[in-house]
Amino acid sequence: MKTKPAVSLSFFIVFTVILIFAVIGCSPVQLDPEGPISEDPEEPEEIICEKPVDGESTAEMPLTVRTHYWPWISHGHLDLSSAEIIPGPDLFESDPGFIAEFTEDYSFDGLLVWPVKETDVFTLEWIMLSFNVDYYDPDEQLFELYFEFIIEDLQPEPGDEGIQEFTINLAEQQQCFEVLIKKVILGKGQESKVSAATLDFVALELEMKVNPNR
């Protein structure tokens, strides 16, 4: 009796099964182009922004609110005893720096000039300066301050041209913002900084600063 065909058939079946499993086991697994598919994907971690507790250090985001002031002397008025009213000092004839935000680190000390067109400045008896100052407290609340300075008894000498100076010390402070007028200067027939024409003017030498110690 011949048995070789049976052995050959069994060997062929086993070989075929082994080959099928080998092909299945070595087949490449197709991945999602965006990355492997996870059976149990993790949810993104939630980021909670907590407000710092009072007194807690916040070095990552420092925040300092400072008291500051904005004097609107550029929109103020200079009233003359002759009834002439001059709106704001001249930006080109005056020293720069008075239009700014004032803090403890910034102040102004210079000359502000008001050109006069209708009055003989050597006949002035008094002048009055008035202007507002915007005051922002540490909570950023806005308050409006009002400054008014009346300078009397000027008594200039009559003349066709020249400069006459009057030294004064007139100061006022509100909410730690101080304005000090040091000198009044009357000029007639003087050279202008920006024009070939002569200039008549009233000038004030003054200082504006934040004075937290008073």
Low-confidence residue ranges = 44-64
Rounded radius of gyration (Å): 43 Å
- The helix/strand class is mainly beta
Distance between the termini: 128 Å
Q: Profile the largest sheet.
A: 5 strands, antiparallel
Task: Outline the structure in words.
This protein has one helix at 4-25; strands at 68-71, 77-80, 85-87, 108-115, 127-136, 142-151, 162-174, 177-191, 198-210. The protein has a domain at 68-210. The protein is built from one helix and nine strands. Strands 1, 2, 3, 5 and 6 form a five-stranded antiparallel β-sheet that branches. A four-stranded antiparallel β-sheet has the order 4-9-8-7, with no helix packed on it. With 214 residues, the chain is mostly beta strands. The protein is elongated, with a radius of gyration of 43 Å.
Condensed summary:
The chain has 214 residues and is mostly beta strands. The protein has a domain of 143 residues.
Reconstruct the topology from this structure.
Blueprint: H1 4-25, E1 68-71, E2 77-80, E3 85-87, E4 108-115, E5 127-136, E6 142-151, E7 162-174, E8 177-191, E9 198-210
Antiparallel strand pairs: 1-5, 2-3, 2-5, 4-9, 5-6, 7-8, 8-9
Structural features:
214 residues, five-stranded antiparallel sheet, 9 strands, 1 helix, mainly beta
